[in-house]
């Protein structure tokens, strides 16, 4: 007797989605290469956006961009609310940043990435009405130990106790911005060291949660899009994070309230991304602590990507070797 047909359940992203997504970040990274060190971040971003959009259009999913890019400086963008994919697979929320670190790319500095994060439809916080977010990120040991509401010195000492690592050996990643001058002084006064980042706090947050790096914590105010993207990655590697939206003025606060956001709420990981099946994919544009950048090796273009999935708790490295003649 034949079994009745069962309609496919597309509630969650499927198991092969990550390998399709990595093609999009690889393409964006490769297309950005001619603009590395050329001083034109918008040209680099446009090349990456155009490449990512083309490849996303071939992916077997119904993607809705919840966290887009480019809104801060009116750069080219994959915009919030844009639908991507071929519409035939799982329904997903998408966070994209074709280049996380456009300024890094334009200046030829390290740690520029091409990034996509995915979760099931309706699970990703739309924080697009507030550009900045205050964040604290650690490994799993920070859960129940650190808090955005505590002084940074207390957080350092408590994490030191939880991990057994002396305060003097601890390193905190912080964006190198004037707004963080007091924070940086407080970290150093507590006896810990700093790793100052010129841009790209997604990589900083991920490295703070990975056991094999020297970064113990990532703190400070950065972009809320990057915060949500980082949350997707942390769900896969077991890291811990808190965030709080930080409107820059009364108009932005009013816009957030109108969008239904509580700007005073201390956000936990599940508040930022409530899904239990997230993907995070990043390909290096320039070399960095997370992945190597794009390299031309004779007739080959080499890319390195990291692929994270929360449901299985897996982290994979994907090395791509692309015939350069196919990208001319």
Gyration radius, in Å = 19 Å
Overall mean pLDDT stands at 90
- Sheet/helix structural class: alpha+beta
Strand segment tally: 14
Share in helix: 25-40%
Low-confidence stretches: 3-11, 70-75
Query: Could you state the order of secondary-structure elements as H and E?
Result: HHEEEHEEHEHEHEHEHEHEEEE
Count every helix, treating DSSP H or I runs of 4 or more residues as helices. 9
Shape: globular
Portion of residues in beta strands equals 25-35%
How far apart the termini lie comes to: 56 Å
Largest sheet: 8 strands, mixed
Features:
single chain; 328 residues; eight-stranded mixed beta sheet; six-stranded mixed beta sheet; 9 helices; globular; disordered N terminus
Task: Describe what you observe in this structure.
The protein is of the alpha+beta class and 328 residues long. Helices cover 29% and strands 27% of the residues. The protein has nine helices and 14 strands. It has helices at residues 17-32, 41-56, 102-107, 152-163, 181-189, 201-209, 224-237, 250-258, 269-272; strands at residues 62-67, 83-84, 91-100, 113-120, 132-138, 171-175, 193-197, 217-223, 240-245, 267-268, 279-284, 295-297, 300-309, 314-323. The strands form two sheets. Strands 1, 2, 3, 4, 11, 12, 13 and 14 form an eight-stranded mixed beta sheet that branches. A six-stranded mixed beta sheet has the order 7-6-8-5-9-10, sandwiched between helices. Strand 13 (300-309) and strand 14 (314-323) form a beta hairpin. Helix 1 packs antiparallel against helix 2 (41-56) and helix 6 packs parallel to helix 7. It is globular and about 55 Å long.
């Amino acid at each position: 007797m034949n079994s009745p047909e069962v309609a496919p359940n597309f509630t969650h992203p499927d198991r092969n989605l990550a390998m399709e997504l990595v093609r999009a970040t690889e393409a964006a990274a490769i297309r950005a290469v001619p603009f590395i060190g050329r001083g034109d971040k918008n040209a680099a971003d446009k090349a990456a956006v155009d490449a990512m959009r083309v490849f996303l259009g071939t992916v077997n999913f119904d993607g809705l961009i919840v966290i887009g890019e480019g809104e801060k400086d009116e750069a080219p963008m994959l915009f919030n609310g844009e639908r991507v994919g071929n519409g035939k697979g799982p329904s997903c929320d998408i966070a994209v940043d074709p280049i996380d670190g456009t300024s890094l790319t334009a200046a030829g500095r390290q740690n520029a990435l091409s990034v996509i994060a995915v979760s099931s439809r309706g699970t990703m916080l739309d924080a697009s009405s507030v550009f900045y977010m205050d964040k604290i990120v650690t490994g799993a040991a920070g859960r129940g130990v650190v808090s955005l509401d505590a002084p940074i010195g207390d957080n350092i000492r408590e994490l030191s106790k939880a991990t057994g690592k002396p305060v003097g050996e601890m390193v905190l990643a912080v964006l190198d911005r004037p707004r963080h001058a007091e924070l940086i002084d407080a970290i150093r006064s507590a006896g810990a060291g700093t790793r100052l980042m010129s841009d790209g706090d997604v990589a900083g947050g991920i490295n703070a949660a990975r056991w094999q790096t020297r970064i113990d914590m990532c703190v400070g105010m950065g972009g809320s899009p990057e915060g949500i993207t980082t949350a997707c990655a942390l769900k896969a590697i077991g890291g811990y994070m808190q965030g709080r939206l930080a409107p820059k003025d009364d108009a932005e606060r009013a816009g957030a309230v109108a969008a239904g956001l509580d700007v005073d709420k201390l956000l936990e990981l599940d508040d930022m991304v409530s899904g239990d099946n997230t993907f995070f994919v990043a390909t290096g544009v320039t070399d960095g602590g997370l992945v190597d950048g794009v390299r031309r090796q004779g007739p080959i273009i080499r890319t390195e990507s990291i692929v994270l999935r929360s449901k299985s708790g897996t982290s994979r490295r994907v090395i791509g070797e692309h015939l350069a003649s196919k990208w001319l």
